[in-house]
Amino acid sequence: MFTISKPEFGDPYAGDYNYVGDDRVDRAGATLRGDIYMGAFTLQNVSSLDWNERDSQVDIDGSSRIGIETDLYNTAWQFYEDIRLLWDAGKSFTWEAGGSAMFEKLFVDNVFLLNSALLTRISQRYTQKTIYWSTYA
To answer: What is the DSSP letter of 60?
Structure first.
C-alpha cells in the first residue's frame, strides 16, 4: 500500500486536530450618558453595564492525538461610572473635577484534559472581584 508522506502531495492540515469544539460567546451591555447645564457649570455623567459569558472547547496541542484539550468557561460583569463637574464662564480660566469607578466580577471554570499514562483531568476554578476608582481636579 502506498502512503503519501509529504504535505505538498496531500492535505497539509489532515490530522492536525482531533477535537474541534464549539466557541460560544454571549454579550450584553448598555451605556447611558447625560449632561446637565447650569449656567457656567456642566455636570457630565457616563454609566455603563456590560456582561459576557463564554464557553469554548479547544484542542490547543495541534495534534491528532490527545495531548492537551480544554473546556473553557467564564462569565463576567462590569459596571463603570464617570462623573465630572466643569466650569467655564467664557473667560481664559476653566476648571474640571470628577471621579470614576469600575466594579467587575469574573468567574472562571476551566477543565484541561491531559494525555499521560492515564487520561488526566485538571480543573481550574476561581472568582475575581475588582474595584477601581479615581478622582481628579
So the answer is: T
